[in-house]
Input
Amino acid sequence: MKRRAYPRRLTWYVLLSLLLMTIALLLAACNTETPSADTTVSVTNPASGAPTEPEATREASLTLPVGGDPTDTPETPDTAEPAETGNIAETEGSTVGDTTPEDTTEADTPGAVMTLAPETVPEPETDAVPIPRLDIYTDNGHDVTSKDDYTHGTATLSNCHEKFAFEGVGVNIRARGNSTFHAPKKPFRLKFDKKQEMLGLNGGKAYKSWVLLADYYDGSMLRTFGTFKFAKALMESKYYSSDCTHVEVYLNGEYRGVYLLCEQTQINRGRVDIPEKADGDTSLEHGYLMIGVGGQADEPELVTIPIDLRITDRTGQTRHYHAINFTLSGGSYTQEQKEYVTRYVAGVFQVIGKAVYDHEYYDLDRDGTLTRKRHFEWAKNDEERQIETVSAVFNLESAVSMCILDEICKNLDAMAFNMYVDLSPEGDGVLTLAAPWDFDFSMANTHYSTTHSYSGFYATNFSESEGVRVNLWYVMLGSIPWFEDMIREHWQENYVELKSVVSEMVTVNHGYDAAFERDWDRWGKAVDRSLIHHHSHGDLATFDTHLKAGTFVTDWLTMRLWWLNKQWGDGSDATLPGAEPAPELELVFEDEGDLAIVQDAKRCTVRLTSGNGLLLAPNDEAYDPYFSFDYDLIGKQFEAMLYPVLEVTYRIPASNSQATYVTELFLCTGGVTGATGGISTAVEVIADGQWHTVRLDLASTGFWSGTIHEIRMDFFSSCEAGDKMYLKDFKLLTE
Output
């Protein structure tokens, strides 16, 4: 008898239904929502205990493109630690001073903390992700130390997908760089015998010239990588930025460390795509690529652009600039060619300066001659005339992208920017800012306050960091409302992609961690390399692993993007990407618990009063009275960069011996665990019997960085017995 078919069909239906139910249950379990953590830390009695907050998680899926098949790479999820809440320990007594028993108990309950980066993973025994290996053997077997003369050899690329690998390819190699050339780990310039594709960079285009950046001064080895990725996002393939990826380099069999393989900034199709001057060509009308060299005056093919402009930034500061230096890329240039492009670029400066500051409008001829502009549509207002005039000679779209880039990164070397112009007969003569370079001293890799803090505008303001190191185009345009509107619009269009760059950096930081550690073993930790020339912030010396150094950078960028989005965003992303905002550390002196972290009172009494907050009174010696707020007692670590502002509300009786006093605050963060001379900030306080609130920008001090340990308050620099001060609150704020 023929078997009926429906039982088998029914069986499959049942199995399929069970499978779908199982998947649905798993998805439901994964998608359970959790409430966010409290955003305020209060000082309360530890006996009450700390509530347990549900964990919050975030997901990120990114890949490292060169470790396997670029068309099918596995996704690597990462998670972030949730913010936690808890209570801060308090003392049983209400007075801290020389005569008070030492009855303060250390905290036994956790305080609030947030982690911005994914959870730190144990250092892998083997590479989490294979990093491409580049072997170079010179023909003579000698090391490469000259940046003037090439040495020929062969190159082999391995430990990558087979479509990118090659063996025994002819290549010329020399050292390169300016300040980086003098580092022990030298950067290199590669020039292959034939055009060579490198790991799919720039869409797989083949070129002879490539660069190996050493990133010696950047302990994270992520800053330039991130910059190029930000630039790609902002420029949207309209303007050139180098593509890049990390490789491990061996020279004549010797391990030389992790390098950033990237494109050479040059005039070439697919790179800076303007008409190139042929060797020996003495004509004037072709493309010019100008590489910024800052204050250096010994570069080959140097041109000095005369400016002679008084330039005002968005804060109202005015400085008189006379000239700026560039070097011409692409071989040798005649004196006539140098003078030609110099006159033209100088003319562009004048056109913009007169339009912005004087509301006078000019056309610019190719020979650098300015002609008064007389033909506007009658209905155009002043703003429209400015835009039309500036756009005729200057690429505003590229300037907006580059300005945002420098603003994100807070690049110390922003004054050494690159630009190009097509002055060929068919060219538009519009000066374009592109091809960003030299970003190892960015993203808080300096000891200067203006570059170290994640908050505040940087690119459009004059900076006192080692002299004025700014891009003058940004400063000239930064105070103009329509230019800021263009920035705001471009920011909102690209914000999501900019955040994804930070996630990619996190993935690289973790995936290549073992390789980065090998580089550290070869060339030294951050303390040995980042402090060269005193450019780096001292807190970087405390990093004992590469993963920590890299996490510092990605955390800083997370905060930087968040802060900039508050200025330029549409208000839809008010919290930190992927995490709750850092909790405010607020001491409001209303009950006994607020004295929990008040410690080490010397030559004074610190006592809680009824209705007047905290009483600070020097003892009979009336000499250098001080006490400390010890944040280590909270039991959790708080990062200083998350708390750039200190707000203090005080009252000093008018009956005091002086009308004004100086209060000094010693800031103990990072590697500074106790009060240290020179690492402090001071404020003048008034004795008039009234309550006053002062806000101090701690981030601008230049040494408010790393884990917060202690703030020592020397409340009177000089005083007499009987003087008093009252504190209503002492708040570390996120903005």
Summary: Confidence is low (pLDDT under 50) at residues 1-63, 65-95, 98-125, 526-541. The chain is about 25% helix and 25% strand. The first strand starts at residue 40 and ends at 41. Residues 481-511 form the longest helix (31 residues).
